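Obj: model holo form, ligand = zinc ion.
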Amino acid sequence: MAAISTAHAKGRVMASERPPFEFGQTIYVATAQAFSEDCVPCPICAGKLHVTLTLGDGTTTPVGCEFCAGGYSGPKGYVTKHGPSSSVVVSTVTGLTRGKFFDDNGWHVEGTGHVSERVSAGNVFDNEADAEARRGVLHAAAAEQSRDNFESQFKRAKGKTTWTVGYHRSCIKDLERKLEWHRGKLSAGRVA
Ligand SMILES: [Zn+2]
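Output (holo structure tokens):
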């Protein structure tokens, strides 16, 4: 019972807090995302469309690059890399909601230009300089995120290429075994 009345009292105190912004006020919202698309040369084949496979006897043979190959179209020599992008959106407050819908019971601000932000996320400011500083922080985090994504994609692709090399090697080994077997048959025939 004591716990309930404490929570009730706390709710009343919070409900009396003034909104952090006013209707019609200009706000600056920092945003960043890790998935802005960018075309870069293929990091596996460097745009050459193939990688070189070295056989056991030292001879080399080109193998089509799998990393930049898309479906049936074959290697393209470039890949789509997801990089960071960020901006400060200038907006005008059109809505302020006290968040009984939000975990932290905080304020939610809505503004022109599809702005919809939880104030507690710390991305909404009443001046551009603070928003720019925040954008820098968000951009760095997004850059790290997209670098991690690309590195794991690259690592997976190298694993796949290794698998391809292994596959070709095992085919060659198998054919060499067969060749030896057939040659054996011929020389046995000659002896007979
Ligand atoms: Zn490639």
